[in-house]
Amino acid sequence: MKKILTLTAVFCFLATAIFAQTRYVDEVFTNVTVTSNVPYGQNYTVLTWATTGSSTLQPLVMDYYEPTGDTEAERPLVILLHTGNFLPNPQNGSTTGTMRDSFMVEVATRLAKMGYVAAVADYRTGWNPTAPTQEERALTLIQASYRGIQDTRTCIRFFKQDYATNNNSFGVDTSRITVFGQGTGGYISLGTGNLDDYNEILLPKFITQTAGQPVPMVIEAINGDIYGTSTGVIPTGLGLPFEGDTLCIPNHLGYSSDYQLTVNVGGALGDTSWIDENSTPMIAFQTPSDPNAPYMEDILIVPTTGDLIVEVQGAGLVIPKANELGVNDIMKAAFYNDGFSAAANAMNGGNEGLYPMYRPTGPNGEIEGSPWDWWDAAYWSQIPHPSCPAGVPVSACNFHTINLLSNPDMSATKARTYIDTIIGYFAPRACAVLDLPCSTVSTEPIIERNEVQLLVAPNPAYEYVRFTSEAGKQILGVELYDINGRLLQNHNNINQIQFDLQRNGLAAGMYIAKVRFEDGITSERILFE
Question: Of all helices (H) and strands (E), which one includes residue 15?
Answer without folding.
Answer: none
